[in-house]
Amino acid sequence: MKVTITAHPNSKKPRVEKDLFGGLHVYVSAPPLEGKANMAVIESLAEHFKTSKSRINLIRGAKSKTKVFNVEI
Fold first, then answer.
1. Of 3, 14, 16, 33, which shows the fewest CB atoms inside 10 Å?
2. Domain span holding position 48
């Protein structure tokens, strides 16, 4: 399934939250440098959806706060 998220790097408290409209917000403590935040978002999504990291692929938004992931459950 395709999941659109809003990434929040450099967060003090890493977490995954839903907003009022059903969108996912992923807060990670990693900085947005050299793909570190993207890897942290993948780890958070894997934990949230209870799947392995290898089953989550970034489709769009590598350098954007709004990202689209393909999650295989």
1. 33
2. 2-71
Q: Rounded CA gap, 41 and 34, in Å?
A: 13
- Among residues 73, 55, 65, the alpha carbon closest in space to that of 6 is found at 65
Give the pair of three-digit tokens for residue 25: 């917000």
Total domains present in the chain:
1
Q: What CATH number corresponds to the domain at position 60?
A: 3.30.1200.10
State pTM to two decimals: 0.94
SS3 string, 12-62, reads CCCEEEECCCCCEEEECCCCCCCCHHHHHHHHHHHHHHCCCHHHEEEEECC
pLDDT of residue 40: 97
